[in-house]
User: Fold these one by one.
Assistant:
Number 1:
Amino acid sequence: MNKLDEQRQKEIQQAEELLFTGPQALGFAKGLFQGHFVSDWVMPYPRVDEGERPQLEQTLTELRKFLNEDLDPAEIDRQADIPRSVIDGLGRIGVLGMTAPKEYGGHGFSQMANCKILEEIGRRCASTSVFVNAHHSIGIRALLLFGTPEQQQKWLPKLVSGEQLGAFALTEREAGSDAANVQMQARLSEDGSHFILNGEKRYITNAAIAQELTVMARTPIAGTDKTAVTAFLVTPDMPGFEMLEARMAKTGIKGTATGRFALRDVKVPKENVLGPIGKGLKVALTVLDFGRTTFGACCTGAAKTCLELAVAHANTRRQFNKTLGEFELVKKKIARIAADAYAMEAMTTVTASFIDRGLEDYMLETAMLKVFTTERLWECINDVFQIYGGSAYFTDLPLERMLRDARINQIGEGANEVLTSFIALVGMRGPGMEFKEIYDTMMKPSRDGMSKAWAAGKSRLNATIRVPDVPVQSEQLRAQARQLGRLIRHFNFAVNRALVTYREPILDMQLIQERIANAAMDLFASTCVLSRIDGEIQSAGRNGNTASSDHSAANLFLRQSSRRIRGYLAGLTDNDDKAVIAAAKSCLTSGSSRVA
Ligand SMILES: Cc1cc2nc3c(=O)[nH]c(=O)nc-3n(C[C@H](O)[C@H](O)[C@H](O)COP(=O)(O)OP(=O)(O)OC[C@H]3O[C@@H](n4cnc5c(N)ncnc54)[C@H](O)[C@@H]3O)c2cc1C
C-alpha cells in the first residue's frame, strides 16, 4: 500500500468511525442524494414551541434593549475588547446559558429559540456573537452534551451565569482543517489518577478570558501503539498552563480574544475527561454541529442588517437626479440580499429544529448551513458595500468593519472548501455503495450478491425515473413544489452519472464535488424557503389574514436557486476543469505565479 492509499484508508476509517456508527434513518440531505424528498424532516415549517414563545419574546425584548443601550460595536472594534459590563449584561439576561437546563441556571431554550437570540446579536456586532458562540455554542456545549452529572453540577452553574467563561480548543499548528491530526499528547499518570498533557493550541477564541477550556488531546489506545483524541476539561490555573499570546492581532472580530497557549506537563484529573476516552473527535464534531446552527443565525442577523443599510442608502442618496434605488443595478443587489436573508433564516430555523426534535445525523445539513450562509453573507456585504460607494470605505460607517468581521466565517469551524468536499463525499456515499454492490456482483456473481445488486439496481433506477413528491399545503405553491421535485430528480440523475463516469477517482475530484455540493446546498435552501412560504401562507390563513403577504424576495430566491442548480449540474459535463488543473499545476510546479 503506498503512502497515499494509507492516508486514504486512514481518512475513510476516521470518517466511518465518526459518521456511520450504526443504522440510521435517512436524513433529508442524504435523502436528496438518493433522489428522495424526506418531507417529515422539513415540512411543515418548524415554529418555536408555544410554551417557550412568551419567555423567548420576553428575553428578546430585554436583549434588544440591552444591546441598543449598552453595546457599542464600533468601540469594541476600536478597543479590540468586549467590555466586562457587556459580558455581565449578557450573563444577566441569560444569553451565556440559553440552552442549559434550568437546574443549572439556564433558560432551557431550544436550539431554535437560541438561534433567534444569536440572530439578534449577529445583527449588531460580530465580535459579540462570536464571543457568545465560542462560550456557549461550542465552549460549554461538550459539557452540556457529554458531561457526567457530577461534572455538570461542578462546572455549569458558574459558566451558565457568565461568572466564568468557556472556550473550545481543537486547533493546533498541524491540526487546522485536518482536525484529526491533533498532536497535543495526554498520557495517564502511573497511579492512574490524572492525565499529563503536553502541546500547544492556537487560534482559540476566549482562550485568555476563559476559566474552563474544552481541550482535545491524544490518548493511547489500550493494548496498541496507537492513539486517539480525547476531550478534557482544563483550567488556566493548572500548573504548566502557559498563555503564549492572549490576544493575537487580527483582521476582524477584533473584540474577541483569540489566543495561543501551551500545556507543559499539565496534570488534569481523570475526573476531567469529557465523554468517552478516545472519542474526542466525535465530541468535537457533535459540538460543532450546534455551533454551525448558531453560525447560520449570526449570518442571518448580519444579512438583515445589510438589507436595512442598503435600503436606507438607496432611498436617500441621489445621483443623476435619481435615488440610487431607482437604478436597476442597485435594485438587483437589494433584491438579492433580501432573497438570501429570507433563505438564510429559513435554513437556520429548519436545521435548528433537527436538533430540537432529536433527529439523528444532521451533520450534512449543518455543514450545508454553514457553507451556504457564510458565502451568502459575504456576497450580501460586498453588495451593500458597493451600494455605499466611497463612503463604505471610511471607518465612520459600519461597513468596513462588517466586511472585516465577516471574512472569518468562511474559514472558522471548518473551512468552506473542506466542508464542501465533505458534503459531496458523504452525500454520495449512499448511492455510491449501491453502485458498488452492482459492480462487485457483476465482477463476482453470487446468489446473495445478485439479490442485493438487484435491490440496489432497482433503488437507483426508481430514483432516476421518479419525481419525488414535495407535499406543500398551499395550492398556490404546487407549481414551485413540482419544480423542486423535478430538480431533485435531475440532481439524482447527475450524481448517478458522475459516480458511474468517474468511479473511485471522484474521491479526489474536488471540482466535481463542489458542483454536486453546491447543487445539494441550493436544493436544501430552496426546500427550506418553500417550507417557510408555505408555513407563512397557512398561518396567515388560520389568522383570517387571507391577503397574501409579500413573498417576492422568497420567490426570487426560488428562481435564482433553481437557475444556479441547473448551472452546477450542467457544469458537471461542460466545464474547464482540465484547463484549471493544468494552469494551477504549471504555477505550482514552476514555484511562481507567472502571468501570461
Ligand atoms: C479568529 C479565529 C478564531 C478561531 N477560533 C477557534 C476556536 O475557538 N477553537 C478552535 O479550535 N479553532 C479556532 N479557530 C481555528 C479555525 O477553526 C481554523 O483556522 C480552521 O479550521 C482552518 O484551519 P487553518 O487555519 O489551519 O487552515 P488550513 O488547514 O491550513 O487551511 C487553509 C486553507 O486551505 C484550504 N484547504 C485546507 N484543506 C483543504 C481540503 N481538504 N480541500 C480543499 N481545500 C483545503 C482551505 O481553503 C483553507 O481555508 C479560529 C480561527 C480564527 C482565525
Number 2:
Amino acid sequence: MEPDLHARLAAEIAARRDSLIALTQDLIRIPTLNPPGRHYREICDYLSDRLSAQGYVTALVRAEGSPGDSDAWPRWNMVARRDGARPGECVHFNSHHDVVEVGHGWTRDPFGGELDGDRIYGRGACDMKGGLAASIIAAEAFVAVCPDFAGAIEISATADEESGGYGGVAYLAEQGWFDPDRVQHVLIPEPLHKDRICLGHRGVWWAEVETKGRIAHGSMPFLGDSAIRHMGAVLEEIERKLYPLLATKRTAMPVVPEGARQSTLNINSIHGGEAEAEPGFTGLPAPCVADRCRIVIDRRFLIEEDLPAVKAEVTGLLDGLKAERPGFDYSLRDLFEVRPVMTAADAPVVRSTAAAIERVLGRVAEHVVSPGTYDQKHIDRIGRMKNCIAYGPGLLHLAHQPDEWVGVQDMADSALVMALVLADLLG
Ligand SMILES: [Zn+2]
C-alpha cells in the first residue's frame, strides 16, 4: 500500500463527517421495526437512491414466501454493486436494516436520530444503522481516492436479521447473491466495536420438551398423573447432570463475554396445567391435575461439539427417566438449529481488517466470537462463503437497550478501517 494512501483516505473520511452523521440520522428516522417489518421498502428506496446516484447498480429484492412476508409486510432487501475499472475480487458489506421494538425506559426520541456531543441516539443506532452508514461512507471515500480500483464493491441492506434472517440474508444466499464466484469477502458491520473482529458464533439448538400426564380432580391427584411433577423430575436431572456436564465443555473459540466460552443451556419458558387467567378475570382457578407440561430449551453449543451428540445428551436424560420413573412419557420437538461458524484467523478478510485496525487505532485487533448468532450463519451455510467476519462500530451491550446510541468518532474510525480494507483488497 502506498504510504500516503492512509492519509488520503483519512482526509476523505474526515471531509464526510457531516454526511456520516446525516446519513445515520436519516436511517434511524425510518422506523424499520421488526416485528412486524415496517418501512422496509422505504429504507431500501432511500439507500438505493443514494447509491445509484454514486454509480452503483442497485436491486430491490423481496423475499417472497419467506416467514413474515405478506403484502401488508413485504420483506424488502437492497443490494448495490459498483464495479471497478479492472477485474478483481468483490468485497461485500452486509447490514441488516431492521430494528427491534423500542421497549420502555427511553429519555430520547427513539426515532429522532438526536445528535448530542459525539453520540447519535435512536433505536438501531448501534445495531446497526451506524455500521451501515460507516460502510457507505467508507466506500465513498475509497472510490474518491482510488477511482480505478479493481474488482467490485457491494453494499446490502437486508431484512429480518433480528428474527432469524430468513426474509433477508438467507433468502439472498439461496438466490445465489453470496455465491463464492461472485462475492469473495464479506464484512457485516454489527456493533462488535471498532477494534474487534468477530470470526463467527456458537451454535444454537432450540427444542420444546413436553411431559405427559392424565387429568383428574385436584382433590384426588392419585386418580390422575401430574405432567408437572414429571417435568419437575426433568428439571432435576438437568440441574443434577446436565449443567455440571456443560460446565466442563470449554471451547477454543474466543467467545466474549468470557462466561459464554463454554456450552450453555437456558430454559426459556415453562407452561403446565391450566392456562393462566385472562387479565381482568377475577375468579379462582379450577382444581385439576396437569395433563401436559412444556419447556423450551435454548442450548448454545461449541465448534468442538456436534449437534446429534448435543441432542443425545437431552434425549438420553429423558429416556433414562422413562426407564425408571413410572408413568413418565415425553415428546421432543425441534424448533430451531444453527451450526457454529468460525472463519479462520488467517482468512484474507481477517488479515486485511486486522492490519487496518492496527494502522488506524495503533493497537492489535482482538479476535472474538459472538455468543449468539447473526447473519453469518446463512452466508456460511447457504452461501458457502467462508471468508466472512463481523466488524463494525458501536458497543454490543447497547444493542436492544433504551437510549441506544452510536459514537460518531467510532463510526469514523471504523469507516477508515473499512476503507483501508477496500484499498488493500481492491487497490
Ligand atoms: Zn444486529
Number 3:
Amino acid sequence: MSEIPESKIQSVRNDFPILSRTIYGKPLVYFDNAATTQKPRAVIDAISNYYLNDNANVHRGVHYLSQQATGAFEDVRKKVAAFINAGSPSEIVFTRGATEAINLVAWSYCESFLNVGDEIIISVLEHHSNIVPWQVACERKGAHLKVIPVTLDGELDMEVFGQLLNDRTKMVAVSHISNTLGTINPIAGIVAMAHSKNVPVFVDGAQGLSHGPVDVQELDCDFYAFSAHKMYGPMGIGGLYGKASWLELMQPYQLGGEMIEKVTFANTSYNEIPYKFEAGTPNVADVMGLGAAIDYLQGLGWNFITSRENDLLKYATTRLLEVEGITIIGTASKKAAIISFLIDGIHFFDAGTIIDHLGIAVRTGSHCTQPLMDILGINGTLRASMAFYNTRQEVDKLIDAIHRVKTLFA
Ligand SMILES: Cc1ncc(COP(=O)(O)O)c(C=O)c1O
C-alpha cells in the first residue's frame, strides 16, 4: 500500500477544482494526464490575477505596470532555470510549448550546422513533434534521418544507437519519456555516447518534467524542450533550455519585436540570448501560470509525486494483468505511470467509448506515434496515464469498466 495518508491525497485532489466534476453523472476519473494534466487552483488564480491586476506588455515600458509585469515575467524565467538547474536564466527561451521548441532548434540549429550528406538520429519512440521537424530539416538540407530501434520491451536499442553514431551525425534528438509506452530513456548515457563523438543532444522533455526532477547540467544535454500544460501549468506556454554556447551560434527562428537590437532599412542586429529567440509579444499571463505550477510542484515535493506515481503504476499494472485478454504494450524496466494496453478482440475505440461513458477518461489511438505503431504492427492502443492525484480506487474503477466492456462484447 502507498504510505501516504488518504487525507493528504484528498487535500491534494481538492487543489484541482475539475476533479470534483461529474461526467455522464459519474465522478470524473481522469487518466489522460500524458495528453494534458489538470490545473490546480493556484495556476488558474495566477492567470486571472495577472489579467485582473497586472496586465501590461513587457520589456517596452517605463510605466509602473509594464515594469512590474517585466519583473514578474523575468522572475519566472529564473524560476524555470532553477527548477531544471540551467546554468543561467539566459539559457531559457519561452515558447508556445515543446513542439515550438523542437521546431525552433530543428530550424535554427540545422540552418547553421546541417549540410548535404549529414545525419540526424532520432528514435522509433518519438512523438510526431520530435520526428517531422527533423525530417523536414533533413529534406531541406539534403541530410538523412536515422532511427534508433526499440527492443521488445520498448527500450531503446543502445547497441544499434552506438553503431548509428558516426562522423556525419550532427544531432541526436530523443524523448526523455515515451508518451506511448512510458519508457524512461537513459538520457545521461545517450549524451555521454553522443558527446564522445562531439554530437549535441536534443531532449524532448514534454513528458519528462512532470514525472520527476530534471537537472539539465547533470544530464549534460544540449537542449531540453517542455510544455507547461503537461506539468500542471497552462496551455500555450512552454520552453526551451539550450546551452548558451549553442544558442549564441544559432540563427533566430522568428523575426520582429523583442528579438531586435537595432533596425535600419539597410540591416538589423539581434538582441542577446534568450531574447533573440522570443519574437513578438510573449504569452505573459501563461508564464505567470507556469511559475505558479512550478511553485505548486515544489510545494508537493518530488518524493510525494514519484512515490504516488510509482505506486499507481505498480498497482495498475498488476490489476490490468489479472484481467484475461489484456496485453500491456511497453514493459521497459524504467517506466513512468503511463500504460498502453489492448483488450483481446475489442477495438480500442469501442472500448474507449464505453469506458468514457462510465466517467473514465483514457486516450485511444496512435498517441501521435504512428511510426511506432507501424513497427509494433498495431493501429493504436488504449492508454491510461496517471498523475499523483489519481487513486487506487480510480484504478479499480478502470478495471471494473474493462470487465464491463468485455461483457458487452462477449
Ligand atoms: C513526448 C512528446 N513530445 C512532444 C509533444 C508535443 O507537446 P505539445 O503539444 O505540448 O507541444 C507531446 C505531446 O503529447 C509528447 O508527449
